[in-house]
Amino acid sequence: MAVKVCKFGGTSMADGNVIKNVKKIIESDAERKFIVVSAPGKRYSADKKVTDLLLNCYAEVSACGDIKAAFAPVRARFVSLVKELELDFDINSVLDETEKAIAAEKSEDFTASRGEYLNARIVAKVLGAKFIDAKDVIFFDGNGALDGEKSYKAVAEALKGVERAVFPGFYGTGADGKVKTFSRGGSDISGAIVARAVKASLYENWTDVSGFLACDPRLVDCPKRIKTISYKELRELSYMGANVLHADSIFPVRSANIPVKIKNTFRPEDDGTSILPISRYTPSGTVVTGVAGKKNFTVIFIEKSLMNSEVGFMGKVLAVLAKEGVSVEHVPSGIDTMSLVIESCALEGGKLDKILAGIKSQVKPDVLRVIENIALIATVGHGMSSSVGTSARLFGAIAGANINVKMIDQGSSEINIVVGVSNDDYEKCIKAIYKEFFN
Ligand code: ASP
Questions:
Q1: Around Cβ 335, how many Cβ atoms within 10 Å?
Q2: 138, CA 20 to 30 Å: which among 173, 241, 429, 433?
């Protein structure tokens, strides 16, 4: 039988009623065998996520050493969850052990991970499924990166002969043997690891929205829903901040060609968005699949006569950045010019000055200029490579909105065009592009 791995996010775990609904969703499809859960999220907009309560708990314990008071709000959340679910489960004993372990471990990652740990124990009880602790099956290497091969093997081994299992998302074990978390939202990655390990037919990611939208709904009213998107397009859009899924979560499933489906726990009947490998992907018929962007980049502009014939020029410039540990996002270049597009926050703490001094001494440019407060906007779609005139439409729309384009970069795959505009023009530019391609 085909196997589906389902990851349920924080809002799908917020209270007992929602978890009862999740149980119905899982039990309505016999293929939904392996479940990954986040910690309970917000029940209402002013509420706090359990992970935030735990991080707060860690901060207070570190500052004043009093665990009891700091842990109280976490305890209250889980006690009421078990009550709402009418579960026969001695949650207070588990909470006592957890409280002691947090005080003993004195680790931020360990403390933050306990929301997923406690929740997965509860959900396993609700489903009558096996609880598998992520610390025993998900591993990081000495550089803090996922040790994929070791993790896939351990997950597959732990699931042999298991009918249904629940894993806590968000953490695993570091090279030092201690609990280590992914970055925030990392349960998406845990779900993808389990999907890859069991060669799932589908990785379902259950959240509180019915899939990806073609544009940020805070900027455009009711943007179109994306029905299908390729991994590549998703990577471009999530890199630019379209954040339904953790940006790193597609890597484990992408290399195994496992499709992902974004579904809405609160509207399970909605189609959602399918994220597909290119071999299974049929473009939706629109030229552009989505538009997304980010503010606050800095451009370092370098000009030098005969730059093109100076062997190793770019290498020397990039070595200056590497020495400062700064990564560059885009490097648009001309015959005698090149620009370095860098996230502004990476240049704080005097790094910008050091980089400018390094470039001056290494390549002696004729002109060296810094342009700050730049927003990048990516227009993404496989349809763009095959349709003539897409860039004319894009730049026509931007010009029509009276916006000055300060930088252009077209990826060599031709599935995206990135433009740099002033931060102040960001909203206007996204609206103009959306209107051109979707209205
Ligand atoms: N609970 C963690 C967070 O709030 C991880 C997750 O939900 O994926 O970021």
A1: 10
A2: 241
